[in-house]
């Protein structure tokens, strides 16, 4: 390999200093997606950085993303898991952080065949419908009482319930218990901690010092998460022993599979990591999408009116939006795509590791290098998107572009073998939640936000959240009555 690639060089980038590499030039950045986008304007759509001991290659254009997924997907499909993901060996059974070996394949296969097939997802449609109805009832109550709705939290609670009834046939929370608020805080903090630049990741020799306290924080959160899943698993095992009717859901399948675990403890560790992956990866991403979409709609009344019109004419006042209706709502789909373009919930695809040295479009990607795909930059690239900063869903009515991993200018779920396996469920949840909020209610901003403008700043982590959570006032649409 070395002989074959000796004529190639790393992609261009700022000259590194000894030992620290380019770390000092980057400065303390709390928004790496923005910093890296401006670097791409200087060094081009593929550039390299030496971040401490780690050679890092950053891709910021659809052309290079296409190269990656079409020509080098396997060689570059390893993961550069952050040190934070290694706490209590979480990464050893995590679909998100495992390298693409037999263990990753078997865990991913179980999830895709037992959870995300159309047939499996269809079998839980009516339970999910019930959960969306609870969301509408909650908002209806807030509208009657004249209180503002924290959109992200309402969407998060619903997502949590939609996921838990699909994965383990249980309700996680009701709207007034406060549990989902605690869980949301934990997921937000885990995402921010795992995604933030960490000295331990740049200098693996310093890992044991945990200079930024990331391990300590994650240990604390793990305790809460582990406790919640332990309770869930123990109660299912007890029910099974007592002869209760099998739920035949993913949790039953996971309990019955060994997937190579060599002891009871290891099996439990595997269950915690898999459930952790699904709940952590599935909640914030989906609820943030609804929150960003609502924030954009509230600032674009004409777009909101068009969406109201589509929902009123296609669904009508008597019916609720169902998952099977999504295909008949092209404007709703365009609004979701436009939201995912401007506000990709995962701004960088999860960091990849070169499993071997690769010649990549005339450049060298050395074995072990870290590869980042800046989805945020690709969605705002002015050579692809006219007026990229304007929220204009119509662009997706004019061009046939989808986010399923074939159109590399829109890859909020990634592409290739590591594409998000939860996409089919996220697709249903996000469209139905957003569509229902708009079908049943008019929305306005509280006075202060209406006067001063909405704060659209971002909080960076593995996921990209609104730094100030969106609050809005719901007004029931006349003539529509929530049951
Ligand atoms: C709008 C919602 C969502 C978005 C935008 C999203 C996006 C992503 C992205 C960008 C990745 C990384 C892909 C890569 O590195 O190439 C990913 C991975 C993953 N997502 Fe999602 N996701 C969403 C919802 C969900 C849901 C609902 C679930 C499950 C319940 C889920 C489970 C996962 C898992 C397990 C992985 C790791 C896959 C692997 O590394 O093999 N996601 N997601």
From TrEMBL:
Name the cofactor(s) required for activity, per the record. heme
Q: Decide whether keyword Oxidoreductase is in the record.
A: yes
Query: Highest taxon of the source?
Result: Eukaryota
Q: Which GO terms describe its biological process?
A: defense response; diterpene phytoalexin biosynthetic process
Q: Which residues bind heme?
A: 420
What PROSITE patterns does the database record attribute to this sequence? CYTOCHROME_P450
- Pfam families membership: p450
Record bears the keyword Transmembrane: no
Care to name a GO molecular-function term for this sequence?
heme binding
Instruction: Write the protein's name.
Output: Cytochrome P450
Q: Which InterPro entries match?
A: Cyt_P450, Cyt_P450_CS, Cyt_P450_E_grp-I, Cyt_P450_sf
Cross-referenced PANTHER family: CYTOCHROME P450 FAMILY PROTEIN, EXPRESSED, CYTOCHROME P450, FAMILY 76, SUBFAMILY C, POLYPEPTIDE 5-RELATED
Could you tell me the keywords of this UniProt record? Heme, Iron, Metal-binding, Monooxygenase, Oxidoreductase, Plant defense, Signal
Q: Per its UniProt record, what SUPFAM superfamilies does this chain match?
A: Cytochrome P450
Q: Into which family does the record put it?
A: Belongs to the cytochrome P450 family.
